[in-house]
Design goal:
The protein folds into two domains: 116 residues, NAD(P)-binding Rossmann-like Domain (Rossmann fold, 3-Layer(aba) Sandwich), CATH 3.40.50.720; 103 residues, Regulator of K+ conductance, C-terminal domain (Alpha-Beta Plaits). The termini are far apart. It has nine helices and eleven strands.
Length: 231
């Protein structure tokens, strides 16, 4: 997969480097040469151009990219012009960062395939960490529904999935369990390895330090969070 990331501020640079770490071919683009220099060793290619300049954009064959991410957040005009140019050059999937509702509306109107609302999503993450500190990760995949990584703590420790009554009491489904399993390494030292059980069975036992992956509605998660907090 070839991904272009336009705008190498904090968000764009992090997105580009993480995509590269995950195996994507990443073209990092910014008109600021210092930002391009900072990231050049953490992506496939780093290019200093103005992507709104059609001739410059064509020189890097940006139309060959499978995905383009417009990560610009501090210059709304440049963000909009970048999306418009990418669509003109035939990039099929353009993901753009929006800083407010009007910005989001304009990006959709000119052809952005998907919108990233960083500030809104970060607010959700921070609020979740305050209200439910036992939640390690939370992914919203549809309106009102989430996938949550959570440590259930002592109240569920030692119980089988059947005994936990999570599905019956909260209408949440356990889809995976992550355990830290002790072992002795080649040097004879005690260590731990991570084991993922992605097909948990009813008689599998929940450990106090296990990370449980659950899927379900926000309403049912909130019920679980409230009861865990009371323990």
């Amino acid at each position: 997969m070839i991904v272009a990331v336009i705008g190498l501020g904090t968000f764009g640079a992090k997105t580009a480097s993480r995509l590269f770490e995950k195996g994507a071919e990443v073209i990092a683009i910014d008109s600021n040469v210092e930002l391009v220099e900072k990231i050049k060793d953490r992506v496939t290619h780093a290019v200093c151009i103005d992507v709104t300049d059609e001739r410059a954009a064509r020189t890097i064959n940006i139309s060959d990219c499978d995905v383009a991410i417009v990560a610009i957040g501090d210059n709304i005009e440049m963000s909009i012009l970048s999306v418009a140019m990418l669509r003109k050059l035939g990039v099929g999937r353009v993901i753009a960062r929006a800083t407010d509702k009007l910005h989001e509306h304009v990006l959709k109107e000119i052809g952005a395939s998907e919108i990233i609302k960083v500030e809104e999503e970060m607010g959700e993450i921070i609020a979740s960490k305050i209200v439910a500190p036992h939640v390690l990760q939370r992914y919203n995949f549809a309106a009102g529904y989430s996938i949550v990584e959570i440590k259930l703590g002592s109240s569920f420790a030692g119980k089988t999935l059947v005994e936990s009554q999570i599905r019956q009491s909260y209408s949440l489904n356990i889809v995976a369990i992550q355990k830290r399993v002790p072992y002795v390494n080649e040097d004879g030292r005690a260590s731990y390895r991570i084991e993922i059980n992605d097909s948990p069975l009813p008689m599998d036992v929940i450990g106090e330090d296990d990370i449980i992956v659950l899927v379900g509605s926000e309403k049912n998660f909130n019920k679980l969070f409230d009861e865990i907090a009371e323990v």
